[in-house]
Amino acid sequence: MSDDPSPHLERRIAQARGDAAAELVLRGGRMLDLVTGALLEGDVAICGDTIVGTGARYDGAEMIDVEGLILVPGFIDTHLHVESSLVTPLEFDRCVTPRGVTTAICDPHEIANVLGAPGIRWFQEAARLTLMDLRVQLSSCVPSTHMETAGAALGADDIAGLMGDPSGIGLAEFMNYPGVIHRDPEAMAKLRLFAGGHVDGHCPLLGGRDLNAYIAAGIRTEHEATSAAEAREKLQKGMRVLIREGSVSMDLEALQPLLTERTAPYMCLCTDDRNPLDIGEAGHLDYMIRRLIALGTEPLAAYRAASLSAAEAFGLKDRGLIAPGKRADIVAVTSLERCDAQIVLAGGRVADDAAFAARGTLPPIGRGSVKAPAIGAASFRATANREETPVIGIREGQILTDHLTETVAIEDGDKRPDPDRDLARIAIVERHGRNGNIATGFVRGFGLRRGAIASTVCHDHHNIACVGADYEDMALAANRLSEIEGGFVVAEGGRILAELALPIAGLMSLEPFEHVRERLEDLRAAARTLGVVLDEPFLQLAFLALPVIPALKITDRGLVDVTRFEILP
User: Fold this and answer.
1) Rounded-to-integer distance, Cα 143 and Cα 112, Å
2) At a CB cut-off of 8 Å and minimum separation 6, what does 240 contact?
3) Segment 183-213, tens digit of pLDDT
């Protein structure tokens, strides 16, 4: 909806009364009323980007036949990182808007960790072009902690300089929850900037008085609940809970029993990190709605969480319903259970090829950002004098990890990978040209028996993450990432088996999302030839380096005990 409705006020009122023909009319469908749950008959009349009439017959300059279809409000993804789709914001728009996502609330902290404030400004510029309404929160924790080397840092003064953009919606996920509950001065300065505004949360497994303290700081929404018990406590303490279903973080089935018509006003949907391969194979928010209903959630509750509840949670009073005066974000589906978008309107515009072609262009940013040192096989040796060894234990479908301990024999001063015990070497290589740090450890859960995979998508510092059974292949894969300006690589036997270049800050492709999806298929197939058993090994690898998610992680500075919030000696 326009910030200044006055120039079109009389026109909207006239079209609503039928005194003038509407600019656009959807005729022949039924409309889901998210207040009463009823399916209502009648046309939907639209003036510009605004719905002006429902429940009556209207004449329109343009008519769209939606006979036999059900109209639902456009979907709102309440928390995501566009960068994790591996494509530009404009390609992300083209990928998911036709699936019904008409508003996306993004945190650009991936690109901010590489490029700083210019990366966020690039997203703000993108928001002026996208067909969907891309809302750009300001990244609160760049870097996420003091235990990693990022390409940039954003303090309270930097964030203040980014405020005031029309795309703004508040402060993005405050991952440094220890900094909040222990009143770190920098954390307090950032929170004070948004006092009375929206602050998004990130506090996995936090409960009791610590959760009380975190919420008392003014933090309103949270997407890290992985169990119904955790989500229930957060709801009971006034937080809006965002159900997440990404490519790695899959919490929908655990939280689904909590989503009812009673709780739906306080629960929303988000994807956080979802790539084009999963979007193409399963879907985006449309998939979440289908899956929730299939698991027994009432359709009214699922669609409320996907739109009206999301709008209310983030203060977007101009959307979330198909009703007069609301933004014309509308999805036409064949049935509520199928949630199969046939026609999508975003701000009154049909999301078709012509609309996407008319958006304008956004020059790339962050080229040449991979500045890692040349790496040899010896860089991956794990020198030690104790056989007792901490091991990162993967939980597939979650970004939580286990802190395991294994006995690993020392041979020639090195602890070697052991494929028979599913113990692979993991390494993080600083790639921003700051210090050249390399840290190594062990990980269990990949099933990898040979070769290596490597990536510059490595949350949130986005250094090079590499996991392998062979040091030579690990060096080959890591060095190849510098040559292609970042991305994903699979190597074995001295050969590159598959790769995807992500030259925009080492995070996003210059290519269409269809190309990225095809390359991801090649990469997944190549990883399986190495023995990898994970459905999404690359994002799973990326999250092993995020030191704000329990229990054991690794950064370029070493293994991190997240529970104690410290680097292991």
Assistant:
1) 9
2) 220, 221, 222, 266, 267, 268, 309, 313
3) 999 999 999 999 999 999 999 999 999 999 9
